[in-house]
Amino acid sequence: MDPVILLSIILLTPVVCAVLVLVFSRFANIRDSISLISAVILFTAVCLLFPFAYSNSIELKLFNLLPEIVVKFRVESLGMLFATLRSEEHTSELQSH
What we know:
Layout: H1 3-23, H2 28-55, E1 58-66, E2 69-75, H3 77-96
Antiparallel strand pairs: 1-2
Helix pairs in contact: 1-2, 2-3
């Protein structure tokens, strides 16, 4: 899979999950299922992106504020390590409830 697509999934998954949790806030089972599914998707995407972090630079350019000021996300090896540990921790927290 393309690393830029994986990075987009990693960035959009928490946003989509938050919106869905707000929509289904009255239904505890659905709300918890959405949280668990999003945690698994996030962990899987981070694990799939991990091999690309060492091979080349992955960047996702969002937009230009000014000609020389760019808003973009770049994947680095230390950031990937943190993302992997954090997404795994979030998944295990949800499974323990």
